[in-house]
Amino acid sequence: MAKREIPEINAGSMADIAFLLLIFFLVTTTMDKDTAYIRNIPKKIVNQEKKPPVEERNIFAIKANSMNQLMIRGVIISNPDDISEKIIEFYRTNEIKNDPKNNFPMYSRASMKEIEANLERALEEAEKVENTPGAMQDIIDFKYRQVAEWEKKKRALQLYGKKELPEIHPQAHIRIEVQKATDYELFTKIQSEVEEAIYELRNDAAMKIFGESYDKILSRYTMDKSPADKEKLDLLKILYPDRIIEVTPKR
User: Do 251 and 175 fall within a single domain?
Assistant: First the structure.
């Protein structure tokens, strides 16, 4: 029986058909527009106001050189154990009454009336900015953070139970400058002394105000996140803030 020949398929027009289909899809397909940058880019805020220089009285400077010599507020000391005592002195010298003659940070004392007035003013400013057309979200958030700070101070004074809430100067801070060649042991000792001083200050205040240790309040809050303990910790941090600046060593 003779084999049948398989007829050839005429593919001459396939290229034309494919080309026509390609043109068809190119014409009819809608391309999605890139919407990644369709938003208002925040404008750069140029602050023309120069920050006031930090007064020497507001700086607790700790310096250690490559020979492991230690200097506290311009005075060389031989015993690193003295650091915590000097930090406590830095915080407490003007805590009860300001004395402009000494070289320690001054304190402000706000009454409930003053705090409530500042809270009301901050809230009005925040709402005004929020309702301003085109106001940037960063500025709105900043204004409401100010409101939150005054609310925190109001709760703190209520918890403090006195007529005024004392606050150390906002520029007051501990400044640590340790050179690269300084022994690591001395570096860790400095850090430990700073932590010890802040802990002692807050612990003494916790015992006087709440009748329990700072460590107990902190541990309890870590476990259950109690709002009552949060307010206690906020008060202690307002009374004794841990503003610490570590300067990058030059060599």
Answer: yes
Number of folded domains that form the chain:
2
The label of the residue with tokens 């949060």 reads: 230
86 is a domain residue: yes
Find the helix or strand (DSSP H, E) in which 164 lies.
strand 164-168
Same domain for 173 and 233: yes
Indicate yes or no: pTM above 0.70. yes
Q: How confident is the model at residue 39 (pLDDT cuts 50, 70, 90)?
A: very low
Residue type, 223: M
Asked if residue 107 lies in contact with residue 171, where contact means CB atoms within 8 angstroms, the answer is no
**Three-state secondary structure call for residue 210:** coil
Kindly calculate the radius of gyration of the chain based on its CA atoms and give it in whole angstroms.
Answer: 33
CA–CA gap between residue 201 and residue 240 (Å, rounded): 7
Over the chain, what is the mean pLDDT?
A: 86
Please choose, from the candidates 247, 112, 238, the residue with its C-alpha nearest in 3D space to the C-alpha of residue 172: 238
Of the pLDDT bands very low, low, confident and very high (cuts 50, 70, 90), residue 3 is low
Q: Are strands 70-72 and 107-111 parallel, antiparallel or unpaired?
A: unpaired
Q: What are the distances in angstroms from CA 97 to CA 57, 82, 83?
A: 15, 24, 23
CA dist., res. 236 & res. 228, Å (int): 13
- The mean per-residue pLDDT over the stretch 62-89 comes to 92
